[in-house]
Write the structure tokens for this entry.
Amino acid sequence: MSAIRRVAVLGAGTMGHGIAQVVAMSGYSVTMYDIDMVSVETGLQRIRKNLDKGVQLGKVADAIRDTALAALSTSTDLTEAVEAADLVIEAAPESMQLKKQIFGSVESAVSPDAVLATNTSSLSIDDIASTLAHPRRFLGLHFFNPVHVMTLVEVVHGPKTDPELLDGAVQFVRRLDREPIVVKDSPGFASSRLGVVIGLEAMRMVEEGVASPEDIDRAMELGYRHPMGPLKLTDLVGLDVRLGIARYLYETLGSEAFRPPRILEQMVADGHTGKKAGRGFYDWGEGA
């Protein structure tokens, strides 16, 4: 894996802006891309807000904030965003078709030595790379939400991923002051496969009236030392995102443990997709 100096992050949403922030804070030059200026500006505003809050709390030095913002540029032109990048990290929604389409466009625009990575939390690395001419330079870099707080990154290798590139990706993650774990391409990898099954069972418990969402979460936080309960975490990730992952894991693994609960299907249909919508298993409205 050649030296990384410039990184392109594709997507300025929930995950993309967070990835762009931590990469810029680590001294890399970053271009954050999205399909329109509204999305790009929203992502940039969230980065500024995170950094300013970090400074206020004494967790981020003024110089680090200023350097990170200076290292960030934005673009709505995909070719322009990736053409000079040594590493491209895609953070688009969890759609196999969309990710294949993006990387098809990216591969023809980047240099032959550029590394291509996806932030997918569950989709097959091998399937996403199936349309690439050079799948050896493709892998997964699965960050966790909120990216600027969470330290874990899953480095996922497919059967065709170059072992040397894998080692380089692990070192890159460590330079971001994050903790990498190496995972073989498998449905849900390690984190989503374990985390989703806990979250789905918690939803079934709510559905059956076993306990309130607050008490179920408290049981995992106090009894198992989880920093956040599975239902509150689902609200932060997005119920629609969790539903998509659950459907994929149910289809690929065939286990009843991953069958989406009725309550999850209904809440998503009603638009109660979590914090971003103001309501999920918790009320996230103003003043709540």
